[in-house]
């Protein structure tokens, strides 16, 4: 099959697919949409998803594999409260999440947006207690190195290290029973942003399957900095880079109320 297959009996030449294509590789021909540059398709499937008459098929996003819409959705108030209720969970039960729960969590991350529909996020899941402790320790050592080199984060890192070293509090990995690392082939802002989007999905979905999460900011920054002892502990495969880290576990406690945020600051011009 060429990139696109248009059922001209069904096509009403409305042009929505042409308008929707983010790569701008479609135009309207005499019979229906035509593809001008086969190689620019990012296989996002918008052309297939938006066609009102199911006339459009795409080699990368076969029409027969897609689900019809609309599906039931949350009403605005439920969605607002659901989004508002997400909180970082830092106190976990000791047992690590089951593989089945972790798979559910990461499965949903596949639907997070990625730059240019690049997708391709790769995850490493660590639940070995000793390894997690060693990862926190490696991160602490990286922070000490950063402080010695006069990093702009020195003051912040010093406070973190005070809790970690002097008071023995695991402020770095929060005694989480599991760490999930997100890896990508390229370490650039795109890879890191893709991981952030992935975590947003994971963090929102987690409570619906009984999990709690918090972004492991120190560990992921250390990983993004390419600190070798951390990369070795995580056993990062060749050609992969750490772009994110997430703590995961079953929450030890339940939140009892919603807290307020800063007021919305916005300008309309
Ligand atoms: C990029 C990023 C890094 C973070 N790193 C950490 C971290 O290392 N440790 C931690 O306990 N929380 C971390 N957090 C969680 C924030 O502290 C938390 O989102 C914020 O305090 C708001 O609380 P909430 O998530 O419960 O609404 C991080 C959050 C983000 C977005």
From TrEMBL:
GO terms for molecular function: iron-sulfur cluster binding; metal ion binding; oxidoreductase activity. The keyword NADP does not apply. PROSITE patterns: 4FE4S_FER_1 (PS00198), 4FE4S_FER_2 (PS51379). Residues 2-31, 33-61 form the 4Fe-4S ferredoxin-type domain. Its cofactor is FMN. InterPro entries: 4Fe4S_Fe-S-bd, 4Fe4S_Fe_S_CS, Nitroreductase, Nitroreductase-like. Keywords: Flavoprotein, FMN, Iron, Iron-sulfur, Metal-binding, Oxidoreductase. Coiled coil: none annotated. Belongs to the nitroreductase family. This is Nitroreductase. It comes from Phascolarctobacterium faecium.
């Amino acid at each position: 099959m060429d990139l696109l297959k248009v059922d001209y009996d069904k096509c009403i030449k409305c042009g929505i697919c042409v308008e929707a294509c983010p790569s701008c590789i479609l135009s309207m021909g005499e019979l229906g949409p035509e593809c001008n540059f086969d190689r620019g398709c990012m296989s996002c499937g918008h052309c297939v998803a938006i066609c009102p008459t199911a006339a459009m098929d795409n080699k990368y996003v076969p029409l027969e594999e897609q689900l019809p819409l609309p599906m039931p959705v949350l009403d605005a108030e439920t969605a607002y409260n659901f989004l508002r209720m997400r909180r970082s969970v830092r106190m976990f039960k000791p047992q690590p999440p089951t593989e089945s729960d972790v798979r559910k969590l990461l499965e949903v991350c596949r639907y997070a947006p990625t730059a240019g529909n690049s997708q391709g996020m790769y995850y490493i899941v660590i639940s070995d207690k000793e390894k997690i402790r060693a990862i926190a320790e490696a991160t602490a050592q990286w922070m000490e190195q950063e402080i010695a080199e006069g990093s702009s984060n020195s003051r912040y890192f010093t406070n973190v290290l005070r809790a970690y070293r002097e008071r023995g509090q695991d402020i770095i990995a929060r005694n989480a029973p599991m760490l999930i690392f997100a890896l990508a082939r390229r370490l650039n802002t795109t890879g890191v942003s893709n991981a952030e989007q992935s975590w947003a999905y994971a963090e929102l979905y987690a409570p619906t399957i009984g999990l709690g999460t918090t972004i492991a900011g120190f560990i992921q920054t250390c990983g993004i900095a390419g600190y070798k002892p951390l990369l070795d502990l995580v056993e990062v495969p060749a050609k992969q880079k750490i772009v994110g880290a997430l703590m995961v576990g079953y929450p030890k406690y339940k939140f009892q109320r919603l807290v307020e945020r800063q007021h919305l600051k916005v300008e309309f011009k």
